[in-house]
Design goal:
- The complex is a heterodimer of chains A (477) and B (323).
- With 477 residues, chain A is mainly α.
- Chain B has a single domain, classed as SGNH hydrolase (Rossmann fold, 3-Layer(aba) Sandwich).
- In chain B, the strands form three sheets. A four-stranded parallel sheet of chain B has the order 3-2-4-5.
- In chain B, a hairpin with a 2-residue loop joins strand 8 and strand 9.
- In chain B, helix 2 runs parallel beside helix 5, helix 2 runs parallel beside helix 11 and helix 5 runs parallel beside helix 12.
- The mean pLDDT of chain B is 91.
- Classes of the chains: A mainly alpha (477), B alpha/beta (323).
- The interface between A and B is large, with 48 and 43 residues.
- Strand 1 of chain A pairs parallel with strand 1 of chain B.
Chain lengths: 477, 323
């Protein structure tokens, strides 16, 4: 079910009504959350018009498995070898499922390509595998629980229902944020306080997130397609389309994350901020502290630190950064351009670490240096978006080459106009948020200006609601 | 165990949600009032290739005087170059062909609009055999055209969603305010033209003609006939023409490899019947019934490379019918 669909609005209205009716019982509310989350997930049709409930089974099995692993780890409290083996088994199963659905065909195709290039001519056949929506998100969320229990950062839960609710919680089920059990799971176990501030925040995030998706991201998408789905060889077109994609993916994903957090707030939950004004970052490290925070902290805590982090000397640190970011790139999808994107960022982080020193010193270097640093960071990040959006490595080469050809197609003016029109609301809002150092700055407004702002955004959503709707980009990951 | 604790009042809830919704409703009311009073710009909902072409041709019909008017379906739009014809005939030529699934009644609307201000000497009606067997206009596009010419917003109350849009002033806002934002075109049209505004600019530069930038596998049924409704529509179209305007009628070509072997004779029979219904003896029988497959972008449209040759044939044929 897409957040930006009429069926979701109906679903959520009915859910709120039932949620309110169940207010007397925590158990009833958690049952309602699990049932509704499974309906929400089951609504997704891998082939349009055909229900496929098998993926519900996968979600259920995956949750049940990690619940049992948690109990097992606690039972093996005094058996380090057993605990280690159980955790390894758990990771093998989780990553095995993810690998099968997400990477099987990628590896078969890559193997066939390499064997053909070596002249071996080994014939291979890809499998018809449908990637279950949100599998990367809920697998990582579920895995983090097992790892935290293993590390004794968290006691294993004995409440199966609450664990099912934690893994399947519909506001963040299919595209995150990837929540940590230590943060979200206890919220199912205790009464939830819903106050005026939470309602206000939830409603604002719902409206602003929806505006970013329905109005901004979905209007930028066809601009991006015009260049990336065509046969463009013009530098200005590549440049503008890459800018447009950087804004599209941000509006799309942060819009989803805002809606997720907003929905959770309305239900009395707190889920993490996934974005903190990433395009205001003044260096690459700063960018990764602000972009897809739930994934970057997951990779830091469970992969980078497990590999040794920065504790084993500079060379090993650079290797760890590269490996973490390449795997982070591959997490997004089974394609070489994602590997390249991860490598690009990994190399960037390693170089930054080697030459920039600590960020506090950089921050003291003054405004002019900050502007230069911001410009360089954005150039680096946005070229990364070109790698990310390209449909093939050949297209990466073509588009990169086009950046040296400054002949513009006749429609470049229309493109620039559209880009400015749809970037402006985002830029204005983020400048305001940055200036006030408050992501919820609009809630500080007096009631009437706040109503005007929110009302105008709602009207914008209504205007663009009937236009062609695109699924959230991160659904495919 | 209780599931939660509410620390807000119903009043709080109403203020948080009701205030913004009230402002959104005020926006809708202001737009409705603005449209009624006439303080808003005129509607121009050109948000895709079909509507951009249709509205461009409606504007061109009003704006541009011409001695020769080409009118018809998308094959007229894409196969005949108005500027090349103008050079050949030494006359001003305007192409009012349209892309959408419109029929003679829509062409009659465009022609009537043109003739309100201008007096063409010659009207050349060109349609593809595919269009001749179609039963009628797509009502949506016809409504877009007639509403545009009447300066009305294009609203519908056919479904609950469209009724809500009409009430909320969505059609007013999109047609009158968002009209300034160009819409990117899809697929080959996007690659070639870019945006709706660029497509319109191209058509203005080429006196209303466009080209099909795509390439599609030939598909469909090559058994052509005249739709039963065409007779009535043709007779009605004839009545729109000014008495001093001469009407020429032609059928645009089909790929040779797609048409069946007896198609040229069949085309002549269809053309004769159709010309009879239109009350004209000026049927363009000399135009080629088929052309080599490689000159076509799809069954109904020539490629840009095929246009000059076909336009030359058309120009020579028209020349023979000039007084």
């Amino acid at each position: 079910m897409l957040f930006n669909s009429t069926v979701f609005l109906q679903f959520f209205t009915a859910f709120l009504l039932l949620y309110w009716m169940c207010r007397g019982s925590l158990l009833a509310r958690n049952v309602l959350i699990v049932v509704s989350s499974y309906i929400f997930y089951g609504w997704w049709q891998p082939v349009p018009g055909q229900w496929d409930l098998r993926f519900l089974g996968l979600l259920f099995a995956s949750s049940t498995f990690d619940f049992c692993v948690g109990l097992g780890l606690e039972k093996l409290d005094h058996n380090p070898r057993g605990r280690r083996a159980l955790l390894l088994g758990s990771m093998l199963v989780n990553l095995g499922i993810l690998g099968f659905f997400k990477y099987c065909n990628f590896f078969i195709e890559s193997f066939a390509t390499i064997s053909n290039q070596l002249g071996l001519g080994i014939g291979t056949r890809t499998l018809e595998i449908v990637l279950p929506v949100g599998i990367s998100f809920y697998t990582f969320q579920s895995m983090s629980y097992a790892i935290d229990v293993y590390r004794r950062a968290l006691p294993a839960t004995r409440n199966y229902l609450n664990f099912l609710a934690f893994v399947s919680f519909f506001p963040q089920l299919v595209a995150g944020p990837i929540e940590r059990a230590s943060h979200l799971l206890p919220q199912f176990e205790r009464p939830r306080i819903i106050d005026r501030a939470m309602l206000q925040e939830g409603f604002w995030l719902l409206v602003w997130g929806m505006f970013k998706k329905v109005v901004l991201a979905d209007s930028l998408a066809p601009l991006v397609d015009l260049v990336f789905n065509g046969s463009n060889t013009s530098g200005p077109a590549t440049l503008l389309a890459t800018l447009a994609f950087g804004l599209q993916i941000y509006c799309d994903f942060s819009g989803y994350s805002d809606i997720a957090r907003g929905l959770a707030r309305l239900l009395g939950f707190d889920i993490m901020w996934n974005f903190q004004l990433p395009y205001t970052a003044v260096n690459l490290r700063d960018f990764w502290r602000r972009w897809h925070i739930s994934l970057s902290t997951w990779l830091r805590d469970y992969l980078y630190i497990s590999l040794g982090g920065n504790r084993r000397g500079p060379a090993r640190t650079y290797f760890n950064l590269l490996a973490t970011m390449i795997l982070g790139g591959l997490w997004h999808g089974a394609a070489w351009n994602f590997v390249l994107w991860g490598l690009w960022h990994g190399a960037g982080l390693a170089i930054h670490r080697a030459v920039a020193g600590d960020s506090a010193a950089a921050a003291r270097r003054g405004r002019a240096v900050a502007v230069v640093s911001w410009t360089g960071t954005m150039a680096f990040v946005f070229y990364g978006w070109l790698l990310f959006r390209a449909r093939s490595l050949e297209q990466v080469v073509t588009l990169t080459g086009s950046l040296g050809r400054w002949t513009a197609p006749p429609w470049i003016g229309s493109f620039a106009l559209c880009l400015v029109v749809f970037a402006l609301p985002l830029v204005a809002m983020e400048l305001w948020q940055r200036k006030t150092n408050n992501l919820l700055a609009p809630l500080r407004l007096a009631p009437v200006p706040r109503f005007v702002l929110q009302g105008a955004l709602i009207y914008g959503i209504i205007l663009f609601w009937t236009r062609e709707k695109a699924a959230f980009i991160y659904f495919q990951f | 165990m209780r599931s939660h604790q509410n620390e807000f009042s119903v009043g709080d809830l109403l203020r948080i949600v009701g205030g913004p919704l009230l402002f959104a409703a005020i926006c809708a009311g202001v737009l409705q009032a603005g449209a009624r009073v006439g303080t808003l710009p005129a509607p121009r909902p050109a948000f895709d290739a079909d509507r951009a072409i249709l509205l461009h041709q409606a504007d061109a019909a009003r704006r541009q005087a011409a001695e020769v008017v080409l009118i018809g379906d998308s094959s007229c739009l894409m196969d005949a170059s108005a500027s090349q014809l103008s050079g050949m005939l030494n006359l001003s030529v305007l192409n009012l062909g349209t892309l959408s699934y419109l029929d003679l009644s829509a062409y009659a609307v465009l022609l009537r609009e043109h003739q309100k201000l201008h007096r063409p000497k010659l009207v050349v009606l060109l349609m593809h055999p595919e269009a001749l067997r179609r039963l009628g206009s797509e009502t949506y596009q016809l409504a877009v055209l007639t509403n545009y010419l009447a300066g009305r917003d294009h609203s519908s109350t056919a479904s609950a969603a469209s009724a809500f849009n009409a009430w909320a002033g969505v059609d007013i806002a999109t047609g009158r305010l968002l009209r300034w934002i160009p819409a990117p075109l899809r697929g080959d049209y996007g690659t070639f033209y870019g945006f709706t505004t660029d497509l319109e600019r191209y058509m203005t530069r080429h006196s209303g003609s466009a080209i099909d930038p795509g390439q599609e596998v030939f598909k469909g049924n090559p058994e052509y006939r005249l739709a039963p409704t065409l007779e009535k529509a043709s007779r009605a179209f004839r009545t729109v023409l000014l008495p001093q305007t001469r009407l020429l009628v032609g059928i645009t070509p089909v790929p040779a490899g797609f048409a069946h072997t007896g198609f040229p004779d069949e085309r002549n029979r269809l053309l004769a019947d159709w010309a009879d219904w239109l009350g004209t003896t000026n049927a363009l029988r000399d135009l080629p019934a088929t052309l080599p497959d490689e000159q076509f972008a799809r069954v109904t449209h020539l490629k840009p490379e095929g246009v000059p040759g076909y336009t030359t044939s058309l120009g020579e044929t028209i020349h023979r019918h000039l007084p």
